[in-house]
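Continuing the series of single-chain predictions for the mutant panel. This is the parent chain; the variants come on the following pages.
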Amino acid sequence: MAKKVVKAKKAKKIKTKEGLTLSIVNPNAAGIDVSSTEMQVCVPEDRDGDNNRCFGTFTEDLHLISSWLKACGIDTVAMESTGIYWVQLYMILEADGFDVLLVNAKAIKNIGEKKTDEVDAEWIMLLHSYGLLKASFQPDNYARRIRNVSRHRDALLRSSSKEVQHIQKAMELMNIKLTNVISDILGKTGQAILSAIIAGERDASKLALLADPRCKSPKEIIEKSLVGNWDTDLLFTLKQSFELYHYLQNQMKDCDKQIETILQEYIATLPAEQTSKEFPKSKKVKSKKNEIFIDIEDYASKVFGVNLMRMPGLSDGALLRLVGELGYSFTDNFETYKEFCCWANLTPNNKISGGKILSSKVPRRKNQVGLILRSCANSLKASKTPLGFYFRRIQAKSGYIPAIIATANKLGRILYTLAKNKTEYNESLLNVNENERLKKRLCKIQKEMKKIENQLNKCA
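Parent structure:
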């Protein structure tokens, strides 16, 4: 049976005759200062004669840290998030049953003493023992593995898009205007013509015959677009870019297979009542271009306990990334949807002084979940759904960028609520009668116009 993890407590204020004081709420706390070459670990003085030790960063050193912390009776550890150097130690300590808090380096900056690794580790331990540190959200290890592969897949997708641009550039330099007459250079028609060109075909009329009958452009126009200068250097770059594009597409398929393997392992660890449940399917038409070759809708429904694909704006790609970025029990780390949206960088950072709001700009920091939801919100700009109407209403009032942020915030609230309560998306709860809203708006404008008319009459 797995050891029960003791969760760290938050700061507790105690009223005394002298005033408010803080009490130690995490007596079994340790602090770790992280770097690329060494780990400085500090535990309370009563646990070991040498309570502030320096360890290496090799795998055996990381396991040695875990063993030493166990011997010292530690059950909760705070460590700063320095680059990616914390990842392996974090995973080892979490797997060994410690409650690990990954803390933003800005939140633990020591301004009272000269900066050294020993002082930093002791300061982290001290703050954590009083419950003054707030943990950064981290998904579970299975979700992290999915995140690693999905981010790698996104990088391959970006590289694939660059190769499409290289193909288009090579064709433009040869004055092959195929992109002007067909909608997708790498659709069925484009692929057939490009394959024939790379194979050595130069006759424009023969190449035009390869066009799919469903093409809107007539064969004569396609033939004219395929007359150009067949420079050997540009044909060489065209061939390499075309082959590299297909190689990257195959690599993405391999990523999908790897993600599916991890998802199957992940689902096997989740509660049976959730994974065996039947979820209603969405009726969205899925894009064939750069498609995900696994049923991510089914897998994600089992992970989250609800089919988030039914939300407007969410695609297969967005849903896959959300599984990796959030994981099964992400709602346990945020008490309310407001906290979740704030973490996702979808809420204004109000700066108040003298009772007045000086600034309410959204902070300039990247949060992957926030970026995913913004992308989903952007896809709703022409949608005939309540969220689409909401987007356009905010856009008319405040502008395009505020509309994206406001709609992404609403999507974040819906996502959190659905995952927290395990309830399916119900569009009727968001419905706003547009006719009634416009009538009220017209009525308001008419009243304002009447006031202006009265003022003009008085001036006359």
